Amino acid sequence: MKFGRVKPLDAILATAKAKSLEPTLGWFQLTLFGIGCVIGTGIFVLTSAGAQKAGPGLMLAFAIAGLICIVAALCYAEIAAMIPVAGSAYTYTYSVMGELLAWTVGWALVLEYAVAASAVAVGWSGYFSGTILNQFFGIQLPAWLAGGPLALGGVPGGLINLPAVVIAGLVTWLLMIGTNESAKVNAVLVAIKVTALTVFIVLTLPASEMANFNPFLPAGVFGGFGSGVGAVGAAATIFFAYVGFDAVSTAAEETKDPQRNVPIGLIGSLGFCTVFYILVAAGAIGTIGGQPIMGPGGVPFPAGSEALAQQCVLPQYSEMLVCSNEALAHVLRMIGFSTVGNLLGIAAFVALPSVILILLFGQTRIFFVMSRDGLLPESLSKIHPKWKTPYIVTAITGAVVAFAAAFLPVGQLADIANAGTLYAFMMVAIAVMMLRKTEATRERKFRVPALWFVGPATIAGCIFLFANLPFEAMIVLPAWGAIGLVIYYLYGYKSSHLGKGIVTVVDLDNDPAHTPHP
Known about the structure:
mainly alpha; 0% strand
């Protein structure tokens, strides 16, 4: 199954050496990168949207998404250690299935990371407005500055989400300064987040009541194709929160000893975070309940919709979990821990930028590698002489993220990001299985156990979750892909280094790390 020109693995590795990013990251920093991205988005930001889709079944949704993510992580671990260069699923696809499919994957990853970063920026804005401004300074941000227009799923009277725009700009500036500096800041922020969520679990689980979990599945397990509700619909949304390990793989080229450190960072961060997801969700729902607001026909109003926003301004619904823009801080205030709730809001305010940072980091590295391959203008891969980062593409990405965060709600952004994510993960699983055949003798520091099961399970799981996204989010991927194909055939196909015969190869006689293969 090859479409277009296939770039040999040796050429991919040699190109990375010829025009490379400085390796500065170890396994511990990679694990923190993964934790920094995974813990934050789903818990701090998407808990409300997930509860609106599934009610207490949100816990089951975390389990479903986590299981699919585990099999995908195993595939990522093998291929990221085998091909330790920047580019993630794009690079892997290029080496196996050809340039055309690699372009579609890279283009989907651009959608994934940029839109996901926008979603977290919107979530950060909720904590900034609700905790920092309102609780500590008594300032109520004008509605027209607190969210996007209602017609786009924003808030009544909304025009632009100014805090989200500001934080996107600040994080972009930090990334432009330097990767290593960003990693050090992220390590501190991860510690803050883990501490805050541990305190939340300790305070909420003992106060939980079983009655709040009944009915456990008010919208059922399956909401139906394209409905985006039910436990599986919620899993399709919050799957977005698990993609931290994907960002880890994009940093492979900047990692010391990637054959060892990348698999540790991928699987270690995912395993650590999964426990927190389920425990925090149980504490939030068990204390104040998490039932969705039902619309006509007993179906929950879509998360992030204008109809739900109109319901949440009504007194009987305004204090529900599904209506909160700062879910976890809101839960603690409701059960009598206002001070701790405010401190948790501060923790989210301080720590969520680390999620934006890592998502932007991954997105800019995808652009960097596609530019390095000639599929995008090479000026995008220009490295700053002082900062040693791809500053041009970082600035462009930051501007796009800020624009999306200014006008769209977090739930819709997460669903759109997932469309690209699931496609990329599926392609990685296919690539791993194909490489077992085409590169059977190449050294693998990490091998997926029972690939005959894990590979197909990843593919089926990704298709399954994609089919349970809201229909509006599902159609974004083919529409985005069509735009990408136009760009590819107008520019990338003609400018591709591989197409021009510009292929760097490894000197096999002087490369002791290379294992001979047919």
